[in-house]
Amino acid sequence: MIGDLQRAAGAAERIGELLQARSEISVPTTDLQSLPPRISGRLALENVTFAYPSRPERNALDNLTLSVEPGETLALVGPSGAGKSTILDLLLRFYDPIQGRILIEGVPIAQLDPHDLRRCFALVSQSPALFFGTVEDNIRYGNATASLEQVQAAARIAHAHEFILDMADGYRTHLGEGGVGLSGGQRQRLAIARALLVDAPILLLDEATSALDAQSEHLIQQALPSLMQGRTTLVI
Prior knowledge:
By secondary structure, the chain is α/β, with parallel strands linked by helices. It is built from 8 helices and 10 strands. The strands form 3 sheets. It has a 4-stranded antiparallel β-sheet with strand order 2-1-4-5, with helices on one face. Helix 5 crosses helix 7. It is globular and about 50 Å long. Keywords: ATP-binding, Membrane, Nucleotide-binding, Transmembrane, Transmembrane helix, Transport.
């Protein structure tokens, strides 16, 4: 009992620190710009250099320049630690580059409200973020106004509808934190359904099939063309 109380106290302290923490990425106080409701998906990095704060002596990216046209698919390849995922972190503005700039629709992302920027992206990662709640709520996350019919349509395209119906309460089945009890392939298909429902113009695929068995990977590969259609896509 005492040990449980000590662990709970430590967890509460960490939660308090997190709630009081201030993000270094905030809304610009000058030269604030905004994006139109629907963008084409044009991206550009101009002479971008970046090092993580934990390793300032080593650049993760060094003077990188690239451009991605609307609807184009760009594959980022290279060994582990080459900076592929760093590019996605910078596009989402989890960090700012040391030098250079990143533009979306020709607008420097440092001049955008982070919420305005991030609504333009859908992310499917190797470890999808699923939370405690129903399957339906997890898919609807990011598009709170979507109807159940729209949720189910996205799940069908993502090849998730069948396994959802096999669950105890279907779309009303409650998931554990992180999708506990689901296979890796099932979690990925829920993430793809969520990305379809968000309908963002830019899609980020961060090793979305790297840790799956052959059957799950096959199903994910069948779902990806529908997800990528008409979107600017970066694939790691």
